[in-house]
Amino acid sequence: MDNMQQPAPPDSFPQPLAQQHLRVLLAGPRGFCAGVDRAIRIVEEALRRHGPPVYVRHEIVHNRTVVEGLEAKGAIFVEELADVPPDAPVVFSAHGVPKAVPAEAMRRNLTFLDATCPLVSKVHREVERHHVAAGRHILMIGHAGHPEVIGTMGQIPPGAMTLVQTVEEARVVQPADPARLAFVTQTTLSVDDTAEIVATLRARFPLMQGPKREDICYATTNRQAAVKAIAADADLVLVIGSANSSNSQRLREVAERGGAGRALLLPTADALDWASLEGVSTLGITAGASAPEVLVDALLDRLRERFSLVIEERVVTQEDVVFKLPAELAG
Question: N or C: more exposed end of the chain, with fewer CB within 10 A?
Fold first, then answer.
């Protein structure tokens, strides 16, 4: 017994290195907006009522985590109605669709639900009011190829609307009759960029009519204001969102212009490159309107693997908007 090695005193064991502190600024509001929440609930309720599969034309919202979660419950995502079999229920995405799509669904006797965000539907009604009721040509400020732009431009006949993407295009666009002109915008644009484009158009076309209320939605505006509130104090801002999400991409741009050292788009916590955090003492985090809060939680959990976090949430406004489900699902 005397020759047995005695345990070393506690203070002689190697001690773990102290975790580095990381200051985290959380932008608020962030993540899901009312339109995204409504669209997801529509798919879930359709699955509950009809049973799987329920088809969804285009990604219901631009987030792979959301899409994969709905796929696991029995949703099947397709790009065109031609991919939907007869008698199958189909949901139209939150971005909105051209008028030809529900017309085709009715022709085929498909059961369909429209998950278009009510704020996008508001823009559709503005387009009809300007063109049908007043005979105006419409300038749409937005990004070519985005589903919302395709859906909005598809509300009226081809040639009745012209897409304007940049200030440079606003300086040279030549509508046939400047006296009978109106504009609308995509709901997920940069507030500052859009204001510059609108100002350029108004200077050229003083008789141009605009929306009665701002087309850029409250959620886009609030999330951009929130990221501005953290950007100048952050060495790096991580925007959680998918690459095809317009509102998420705009948040990254707003963060860079707002004074952040850098800004990166991050689809999930697993995509985090630790090297990107070298030299970062203050990290800003936000999430696009189509990104669920679980992705923010997962990122914070991953950061805790290497850092001791000091978290500060900066909330610029509280949101209490809720959109009702379509009448056919409300009962």
Answer: N
